[in-house]
């Protein structure tokens, strides 16, 4: 399968343009860094994405239901399906914990967001190994087709957001210091 040039152009636009503007806006010094507090600017995009993330994980779980039905008659099929469902629900729970920490403006949000990023390849690898071991199929068969595309894309895009979370003045002001005390008192 060949990937046409216009697909690469679309990928460049989807990834490159936001990265360009994030880098450009990060290089500008704000007039008063103390004013950068709350869910605004790039942090608003991150907040929207974090709010939608559990729904996306659950939608992926739902879209896998046809594949689960095909696995059920196989020996150990129900065990493989249950394992995948438990992993997906566990990852959804982690996403919800990160979301609550973000909405409460907890200082632990940055660390939890990093853990969520690390969990992406961990959950994917654990799922592949689990399915391979339980079904007795080689890993290459479990990872057939375009199975790697979505997790790699999610890992790369979330990695960009992790870099933003650890470099942003707005994030530092929103999830630490006086802003956190004000939000806790509210």
Automatic annotation (TrEMBL):
It comes from the Bacteria. InterPro entries: DUF2569. Keywords: Membrane, Transmembrane, Transmembrane helix. The keyword DNA-binding does not apply. The chain crosses the membrane at residues 6-24, 36-58, 78-100, 112-135, 147-166. The keyword Hydrolase does not apply. This is DUF2569 family protein. It comes from Rhizobium loti.
């Amino acid at each position: 399968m060949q990937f046409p040039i216009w697909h690469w152009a679309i990928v460049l636009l989807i990834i490159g343009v936001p990265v360009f503007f994030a880098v450009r806006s990060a290089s500008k010094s704000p007039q008063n860094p103390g004013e950068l507090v709350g869910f605004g600017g790039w942090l608003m995009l991150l907040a929207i994405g974090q709010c939608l993330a559990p729904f996306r994980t659950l939608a992926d779980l739902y879209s896998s239901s046809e594949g689960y039905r095909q696995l059920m008659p196989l020996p150990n099929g129900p065990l493989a399906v249950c394992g995948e469902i438990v992993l997906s629900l566990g990852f959804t729970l982690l996403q919800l914990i990160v979301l609550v920490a973000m909405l409460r403006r907890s200082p632990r949000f940055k660390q939890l967001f990093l853990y969520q990023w690390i969990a992406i390849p961990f959950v994917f690898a654990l799922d592949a190994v689990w399915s391979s071991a339980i079904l007795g199929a080689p890993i290459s068969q479990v990872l057939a087709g375009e199975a790697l595309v979505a997790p790699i894309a999610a890992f790369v895009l979330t990695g960009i957001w992790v870099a933003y979370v650890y470099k942003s003045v707005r994030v530092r002001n929103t999830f630490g210091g006086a802003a956190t005390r004000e939000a806790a008192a509210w």
